[in-house]
Design brief:
Elements: H1 15-39, H2 43-49, H3 52-67, H4 75-98, H5 104-116, H6 141-158, H7 162-179, H8 190-206, H9 216-234, H10 252-272, H11 277-287, H12 289-306, H13 309-312, H14 318-350
Helix pairs in contact: 1-2, 1-3, 1-10, 1-11, 1-12, 1-14, 3-8, 3-10, 4-5, 4-6, 6-8, 7-8, 8-10, 9-10, 12-14
Length: about 350
């Protein structure tokens, strides 16, 4: 199944079209991230977003193979992380000062969280717990997790012997299961990064294989049915806080399967939408996915917690409220990316 992703790009596609297709997939991913943070409590949200984090890791592995990168451009992840975490630390401290709620203990905790790069020190269901990342900055764990996962995937990618690769993959799964029993969440998502590395390797392997075009629809239907079944059996997933499903550490094989199957299903749909307005719109979101990942949580707090947007829309059905909130957050986050890249676009246009 890990080789199924490549079936979505036919031999007639140009390199440019494959980039559009991949941008669309990342656009779906970032849309799912925002959806997860607005309606994950509903059963519909669970099925929709069960694979939203693995999708990014698999796409990263696919890009690694297709573009033949010699490195993972870690600077591209660490620089935004540093800039945005400092921004959120300053913003939260200023907010606490304005509300006469400033304490050095709280600020030092957030500063430590910036280094630790996890939502909390203990697993999410631990009471009492210590929340490490400040509001708005909590999705930033993904950037440091991607850094470690990228490095850990290199042995899988560069090992030539298939048997040794298989042993490494099994070892990564065993390590992930063992680390899931730790009483704390490790810095930079080291306890989940082995799973991220497996997803990256899956994307890398997917780019090397091709299946018959005639089998794609049948494969999609089977993959979708199996994905729905596995999500139903496994339950809610939240990779950021080491929740793999209802079976704790033993949900890891199910989580791996759900991530690959769900990514394939979304990628199949993106391929169908590759040349129309929806596909191009998703591609624009995909190109801005890094910025949206960094800022969308801030806009959710702003529009939902401060402006009480959903309460203002109480006359509408709950799903419509969530669609409105998600749309506004996406538009606001995309606007930030547009403004950040405006000088670069201006210089390029003027030259």
């Amino acid at each position: 199944m890990t080789n199924a992703l490549h079936t979505l790009s036919s031999s007639e596609e140009t390199a440019k079209e494959r980039i559009i297709w991949l941008d669309s997939l990342k656009g779906v991913g970032i849309l799912l991230v925002v959806i997860f943070h607005t309606l994950s409590a509903t059963p519909f949200g669970t099925y929709l977003t069960a694979c939203y984090m693995p999708l990014f890791f698999i796409a990263s592995g696919y890009i690694f193979y297709k573009k033949g990168r010699k490195n993972w451009q870690l600077k591209r992840l660490l620089v935004p992380y540093t800039i945005w975490i400092i921004f959120y630390l300053c913003l939260v401290c200023a907010f606490l000062l304005l509300n006469n709620a400033f304490t050095w203990k709280q600020c030092l905790t957030y500063a430590g969280g910036a280094i630790w790069s996890r939502f909390s020190l203990f697993p999410i269901d631990t009471t009492p717990n210590i929340v490490l990342l400040p509001p708005g900055a909590r999705p930033l764990w993904f950037l440091t997790c991607m850094v470690l996962s990228s490095l850990l995937s290199l042995p899988l990618i560069r090992t030539q012997q298939s048997k040794l690769r298989l042993l490494l993959a099994i070892g990564y799964i065993i390590l992930s299961i063992a680390l899931a029993y730790l009483p704390i969440l490790l810095p930079w998502s080291l306890d989940t990064a082995f799973m991220g590395a497996l997803f990256i390797w899956s994307g890398y392997m997917a780019a090397q294989w091709n299946l018959s075009h005639k089998s794609q629809l049948a494969l999609f239907v089977c993959a979708l049915a199996l994905y729905i079944l596995l999500v139903y059996v496994n339950g809610e997933i939240n990779m950021s806080v080491r929740i793999y499903g209802d079976f704790a550490a033993w949900s890891i094989p199910l989580f791996l399967s759900i991530g690959i199957l769900g990514t394939y299903c979304y990628a199949f749909v993106c391929n169908l939408l590759n040349s129309n307005f929806i596909g191009r719109s998703l591609a624009y979101l995909g190109q801005a996915s890094l910025t949206i990942m960094c800022v969308h949580s801030l806009f959710i707090i702003l529009f939902d917690d401060i402006f009480n947007l959903t309460q203002c829309l109480n006359f509408l059905p709950y799903p419509i409220q969530m669609v409105c909130l998600t749309s506004i957050v996406i538009l606001a986050s995309y606007s930030v990316d547009f403004l950040l890249h405006l000088p670069k676009r201006f210089l390029k246009h003027s030259s």
